[in-house]
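request received
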Amino acid sequence: MAITGVGLITALGDQPSEVHRVRCEGRSAVRVLDFPERDAKLLGASLTDFDARRYLGDGNLRPLNHVGQLAISASQGALETAGVSREERDVHEMDLVLGTMFCSAHTITQFDRKAQISGPKYAMPLEFANTVINAASGQTAIWHNLRGTTMTISAGTVSGLRALEYAARRIALGWSDQFLVGGVDEHCFETSWAFQQSGHASDGSEEASVTPFGTSRRGFAPGEGAGFLVLESGASARRRGSTILGTVLGWGSGYCPAHESETLRAATALEAIATALSMADCEAARIGYLSCSANGSIKGDEIEARVLREVLGDRLGKVPVAVPAESFGNALAPSGIFQAVEALETARQGVLPPFYGARNGNLGAAELGLSPEPMECAFDRALVFSCGLDGSVSAVVLGINS
Amino acid sequence: MQQVVVTGLGVVTPLGHGADVFWPAVLRGESAFAEVSSFDTTKYRIHRGAEIATLGARDKYLSEEEAASMGRTAQFALVAARLGLRDSGLSSLDPGRTGVVMGTTSGEPSEIERFNDLDLSGDLDQIGGRFISHYPCNHIPGQLATRLKAFGGGGPVMLPVACAAGNCAITYAADLLQLGEADVMLAGGADSFSRITFTGFAGLMAIAPERCQPFDLNRKGMMPGEGAAFLVLERAEHALKRGAKIYAEVAGYGLSCDAFHMTGGDREGKGAVRAMEKALERSRLNSEEIDYISAHGTGTKSNDLHETIAVKKVFGEAARKVPMSSVKSMFGHTMGAASAIEAAVCCLTIEHGVVPPTMNLENPDPECDLDYVPNESREQTVDVAMSNAYAFGGTNASLILRRWLS
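response:
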């Protein structure tokens, strides 16, 4: 299964090479965000200058909310890099699967709020269409004329990787030969507030309080964005003469309820990774790059640290490990897609973005041997791993030049 | 690849809970429509729907702790799943080989309503941890997996694909079982009545004032409902080994998208046609072999017409000979639960040899001129049933269930 297209809308940029450069500079999008109408300041990593017109031109954006615009803009990039033209999509059905945790909690909240304050007749039907959780996938399918399967998957923050798994499985079954796979979520007051009140998001007042693997970490900073891949069967990629950016060799997922111990949850994660490695016919020792979803989560990072130690063993500190959430915050569903794209870009450029937290006295990072400086690297097997708030875990093995 | 069979049915509907209660009520053509009681509808022009008053005697499937700590949608889902497991005769589950996948339209919309209620009363500080532990819709299958000890199939997952979600969940489970990634899957859908959904459909002028009349000339719209259904799906080999009763085989399915409009179907029914054709192709069946169609049949002007057009395109002249009915005429549109309930209806139709009616069909619409089984159930052998579901966002999902011939 070949990855032939990538598209990103992140708080650090929209081109994989540009985002990689910014990551290598050790920059982060995490900021203290002001909500003056709420008299609240919350940590987050939001897109400050996103303008869908830059990507979508003069099309009718009126039916689209922020999440829909993010998804369509990022998927446009994936289709363009894969060279899947509108004409081709008109002739050949293309499938779509989109992972999302909330889709748009903001739109839903505002829709209900308007009805409560002004009366139900003031809640607009156009807005109602965007309150359903599959709104972003529906809008994406309409915009790009995708007439095949249009699926939405919600598995919390591992939704993006579960979407990738869904597409890969259907291609393996022979039900599809071309999938647009993505993840999308937005940053908004409603979910940021709820994350903070629930203790998942950092209640710190400084960017530095979000420290993946940090011994004094206090939670994550909610982020946002959209990431898409075009996934094709080998036959489809060959037929189209596609440039193959990477391959999906194996996947595995699992679940251990969030209230269980870190030991049990780490064991579930390791099982998912073992499944992915087995399907990829790849020994753990062959993994030359590992991307994890650590984002400052108090419990999640502990689990991921255990997984890193177990998977890498005495190679800890020698194998490149990427922690993109250090820069993006916890972008929720698209996180896994961001990780996969970064893996491909790191392989292409041969440079691992640094873990700058290691320079800032992040003791946990030092113990894990994460590199404080950009590091040259070369690998042909990458493991992308994500650990969700709810106990879901997902792992994908990517092949580079294979 | 493995064959996949249905071995258990669990339903929670406004007409009753459990197939043993629900099915006779459907065959009698009972109605569950009443004045909405869960919120004040004074400011709306319409006031009726199909709510679940109580889980009643089925409360034994829900502990006090579960009733107190879980959202309404999750409660429906858990009870439906337990009813399905009881029906399947599975006395113990292998946690690593049993999975949960389900669909929904809105998950737990009451959590959004609670957020706004707290906000508007100046008490948003009281939101606490409940929003994050209840609102993200993946929380619901997670609850089921945790309480039923079903962690297989890669872990619980939610497919929020609006009104086609139940069928989508069944297709997802069938894929996993076919590939041997699980032995048993609980696949279903759930949604609960909410002011948000009611407001939305009211704004679209899509809610009928009194009752739901699919395919009737004077139909005035859908009726919002609530509920849940879970099917126990198994690899055939696994089911046969334990001597399970088999309702039907999942013969095939087809998924497509209109890519046309968020809330309105393609007028020529092209997407629906492709979903049905794919389902037939994957089932290796001809349209003449379909004995019954469970219609999406919402009761809106556009849906019923477009579905009729699509069925005619797929079935040709034979379309008029295939009975096609809408059980939504009795208990409304249960959103993400609808197609899961309707898949259960197809299994029961195959099991009992009785086709359920489309109620309230009094004045046939000349443009809707198929056999909708008006107002009375009909005894008829059904070996192969097709269930259609269409959703906001243009998703179409057609599922074919076939009598199991060992």
